[in-house]
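Annotated sample (chain length 507).
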Amino acid sequence: MSLKPINSILISVYNKNLLLPYLEILKHFRGQIISTGGTSKFLIENGIDVIEIDTLTNYPALLDGRVKTLHPAILGGILLRRDNENDIKEANKYNLAEIDAVLVDLYPFAETCKCATNEEEIIEKIDIGGITLIRAAAKNFKDVLVAADESDYDHFFECIKNGNSLETDRRLLAKNAFATATMYDAAIFQWFSQPYLGKEAEIVHTDLITPLRYGENPHQQAFYLHDGSMNYQKHHGKVLSYNNFLDIDSAWLLVNELNPTACVVVKHTNPCGVAVSNRPLDAFEKALAGDPVSAYGGIFAFNTPIDDETIEKLNSLFFEVLIVPRFLEGQIEKLSIKKNRILLSIPNAKPNSWLWRSVLGGSLVQQRDDYIPDTSKWEWIVKNKKLNNKLIDDMALGVSIAKYLKSNAIAIVKDQQLIGMGCGQPSRVDAAKLAIDKAKTFGHDLNGAILASDGFFPFTDSVDIAYKNGIVAIVEPGGSIHDKEIISYCQENDLILSFTNIRNFKH
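Output written by the structure step:
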């Protein structure tokens, strides 16, 4: 692999605060740091020596800042092929200095589109110089290291710290830079296309494009395409990944269906801990106790602000993301003891009305499953003296949880706590067995619990397993050709049975 030294860096960024974690690396960098206007001022104020870009170009910023870096002295220094004899001759002839690394972010065009009051303001946020530097550096990745998005800063500055870069580093960051450039151009294209879009395009409309840390796996590139309606704020932690967003979506949607105070733990998009209580701490402890093993490295979501007692307990755990409606004064500092821990506040947001999935060269589109359990509309097929409001509430909670589990899905609930779950099984019997086994593994008493299923029971086998393990109530959609057999079994064994008449598959 080709190892290249880094003796000079060009830095020109819109968001200067993103440089704060890396200032010490820049202070100890032994080469030249070339910078522009506001970035140069920021670096100097933080004790870093820089070379002003007009020292190389012999031109000031022109046209109200529209032209700063578009100059042969800059682009030539980036595009110069170090192993090309002709390039070297021309570089010597025209005094082109090699630029070994480029760190550039782009004007926030998409964000400006959301809040700008006039067209001129939007147009001035179309970046010209920055996108040119990014493309030039990425094109010449054999010699130049480039970073164009916050998600690549850690990787970029690790190379700066080492004083060199491998071709594998440069090629990967070049790929990511071109992806950023592509998404940026797409946002501009979309804005210009708006007057020509028909109503059918509204369903896929997006104004904001955010690169993610990686996709489902680290070797996969990923982006968050959105319209800005998800009013979340990240207060601390690493850049979000594709998997983070999937888990956050599942956790946030479920916890906001519950009341009064709820905690949801999600792992690999599946709720593995859920509890409803009157206090955040109680909800947290019950949710964690549901499956403390799966909760390790998971996503914790609350539907109310949390207190210091809960924070103390959270700080003793390893988790990936914490979601709350809002943080109270001083709580972010208390929770920021782990560098990579992601802290999100989501005060409110309208869930997507439509869900998209790519398949076979196209897309599937469907309405979101927004079913909220309404026990007054259920068919109460078999009742007994054990049926009470407490049990009915447990059944409603079980249905809500099963809706967010991968099919086939079984949720076992007792005293407003998820104590067992089985999901993603081709057999509903296997899902029921898995849920019961998990409950027993963590010492939960199944006697008096309820079992909720996302689909109907085709046979009595799953119901039989539930009954023999202490389950007292079953809730399922109904609709099987064998419903009569299910009903007869429940009647004979004094099992409560309710049909929701709503199926909640999730594939």
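Annotation: Residues 167-193 form the longest helix (27 residues).
Annotation: The chain has three domains: 3-194, 238-345, 375-499.
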